[in-house]
Hints:
Layout: H1 3-10, H2 14-23, E1 30-31, E2 37-38, H3 41-54, H4 60-68, H5 74-104, H6 110-123, H7 128-140, H8 146-155, H9 159-171, H10 177-183, H11 189-200, H12 205-214, H13 220-232, H14 239-248, H15 252-262, H16 266-283, H17 287-296, H18 303-312, H19 318-333
Antiparallel strand pairs: 1-2
Helix pairs in contact: 3-4, 6-7, 7-9, 8-9, 9-11, 10-11, 11-13, 12-13, 13-14, 13-15, 14-15, 14-16, 14-17, 16-17, 16-18, 17-19, 18-19
Amino acid sequence: MLIGEVAQRSGVSARMLRHYDxxxxxxxxxxxxxxxxxxxxxxxRRIFHIESLRSLGLSLRDVKRALDDPGFAPxxxxxxxxRQTRERIAGETELLTRLRRIDAAEPAxxxxxxxxxxxxxxxxxxxxxxxQSAAMSSVEEVPVPVEALVEAVLNETDPNVAGALRxxxxxxxxxGLALLAEGLGSPVAEVRKRAVQSIAEIPNxxxxxxxxxxxxxxxxxxRRYAALALGARGVADAVPTLIDMVVEGANDVDAADALSAxxxxxxxxxxxxxxxxxxxxxxxxxxxxxxxxxxxxADIPGATTSRALADLSHDEDPGVALTAVYILGIRDAR
Length: 334
C-alpha cells in the first residue's frame, strides 16, 4: 500500500509518515519499482500502535522505546504521565477560573482586563500588604468578581487582610452569600470560621436566615460566631448559645454584652434573666462559671434579676456573693 493510501486510511498525514520513517519509528517494508514507499499490513498495524500510544501523551521517543524495547516497563512511564496530566489539568482549571473571573468583571477594554488581572494576582500575592491593598482596590477602583473575594477571604490567614476582604465582600451585597454558605460546610475548621465571620458582616436580611442555620452547625466555633452576630441583630434565638458561651468562658464578655443588648427589649429581659439564673441554680457547680453568670446579670434589667442578685449576695461561694453585692450596689446607685 502506497503512502497516500496509508495516509487516507489511517488518518496520519503523509508528512507525518515520512517523519516516522526518518525517526525509525515505522519504515515501509518495501519499495515499488519506481522507488515509492510501500507499506505492508504489519507496517500499518504498527502505525495504529504508534497513534494509540501517542493518544496517551507519550512522546515519539517513548513510543519507539515502548514498541522496540522488550524490557521497557510501562508502569513508571504511565505513573509519570498521570502526574503530568494532573498538573496540566490543574493549570488549565486555574486558567479557566481566571478567565471566568475576568469575564464576570465585564471589562469594557483591554485596559480593564489588565487591571482585573493585576488585582487577581495581587490577591494571591505572598505579601500581606499587597493582598490588603488589592482588597481595598476591589471596591474603590476596579471591581473584582465576588467569587475571587470569597476564595481569598476563606483562605486568608492575616487578620488585617481578612478584615479588608470581609469589608470588600460586605460592599458587594449578597452576591457572595451562597459561596460563603458552602464554606460553612468545609472540612477545614479555619475555613468554617472565616465563612461565618464574613457572613456576619454582610448587612443583608438574608444573612439572618443563614446565621440561624449556623446555630445548629456541628462546629461550636461557627455556632458561637453566629450567636454573637444574631445577638447584635436582636434575634432572640441566639440567647441559649450566648448563655452557653458565658458558662464556658468562650468570648464570654462579648456574649454578655450581646445578652445585655437583647435585654433592652422588655419582652426578652425576663427570658434572659431566667436563663442565666437557671444555669446558676441547676446548670453548673463550677465556681468561675457561676461568677461569670452572676456578672452577666449586671446589665439585665427587671425585678427577676434584682431578686436573683439579692439571693446570690448570700451565696455560699464568696466570689459569687461578693460579685452580687457589688452589682446590687451599682444598680441601686442608678
